[in-house]
Amino acid sequence: MTALPLVFDAPRRGKPPRHLADLTREEARAAVADLGQPAFRADQLSRHFFRGTTDPAQMTDVPAAARESLTSTLLPGLLTPVRHQAADGGRTRKTLWRLHDGALVESVLMRYPDRATVCISSQAGCGMACPFCATGQGGLTRNLSAAEIIGQAVAAARAMADGDLPGGPGRLSNVVFMGMGEPLANYARVRKTLEALYTPAPHGLGLSQRSITVSTVGVVPGIRKLTEEGLSVTLAVSLHAPDDELRNTLVPVNTRWKVAEVVAAADAYAERTGRRYSVEYALIRDVNDQPERADLLGKLLARRRAHVNLIPLNPTPGSPWDASPLPAQREFVARLRAAGVPTTVRDTRGQDIDGACGQLAAADLAEGVPSVAVVPPEPVEPPVELGAEADE
Asked: Where are the beta strands (DSSP E) in the chain?
């Protein structure tokens, strides 16, 4: 099976067309009124959008004469599927999307017996250039709009409702921001997306905040802002090293926000929410998998409200980076657990399609270590000022 490419076609940078999902409710009602329609049509359009309805002919509660103008103006197509890749007997489906300006992003939908999770991208590409990450080597193209991010989740919800994955019709239950890009470097759009995910119909998907995970490599102002805004989404921090010296190399944003500051910000979020945060840690052979680093990580996180997800690295073609050998993985797990730190190993869904965002699958408790490796969480982009329009 051919893997989806992780490179971009040198797309043009461009602002996406205006979309209903980018507007406030008041703005949407005003936009509908400008088209000569009653303001309540905005609620009708919103309901259709969050149900994944794309064909105007199916919007039978909207007058036929108004459907084309309303949908073309407020529900333009932003995500065009290039192709799908299936794995795990069809229970994992990765989609490559082309945006209006040619940029490419990916999402992955995974069905489990008790849940369905979609991993979505918040930026096209990645500007961090973490040395072990293929996506990061392609550079940052632009931030995604809120509608482009939301649209990935809506498409997954519709796929579940339609029974596109084996098991018949179902419901999307979880969303993780672990695809391309650093969510907290595109804060304003991600914040609007979060609201759309947990707001009930007709203005959202009605998910539980606790079923939504935002992963960050440690953009401290963004973590603090999430804390200040009183959200209860799950926080995941991609740490990858317990000490500043190594983390400066593996995750260059660490030169701005050190390990201690990142962990302190996560602690404050955990204190406010009363919930654990996840620490993502890619195990890389002879780089960050030494027993002494396991002990450092255990000492750092002991007695904190934290949980470690270990991710044996899935090497990319031509990369010198490789997964830790199984004995090193097992010892790392054992040392963390001996230090009293809850530790799991990531599920390996979609490996044969470069689940490449193999950080995608939800963490499942494992007593041992998987015999196959998965890709680590995506690193972040160079941080921008919160709320800034990095793509304009």
From this structure: 80-87, 92-98, 104-111, 116-119, 123-126, 139-143, 174-177, 212-216, 234-238, 277-283, 306-312, 343-346, 363-364
Residues in the chain: 392
The letter for the amino acid at 244 is D
d(Cα 247, Cα 226) in Å, to the nearest integer? 24
**Reduced to 3 states, what is the DSSP secondary structure of residue 260?**
helix
* CB distance 170 to 178 below 8 Å: no
pTM: 0.86
Over residues 228-284, the pLDDT tens digits come to: 999 999 999 999 999 999 999 999 999 999 999 999 999 999 999 999 999 999 999
Is 331 among the catalytic positions? no
Q: Which of 106, 280, 378, 381 is an active site residue?
A: 106
List of residues 6+ apart from 350 with CB closer than 8 A: 87, 88, 92, 94, 108, 110, 356, 358, 360, 361
- For residue 357, indicate whether it is catalytic: yes
CATH architecture of 20-74: Orthogonal Bundle (1.10)
Instruction: Provide CATH code, domain 80-364.
Output: 3.20.20.70
Of 126, 130, 133, 357, the active-site residue reads: 357
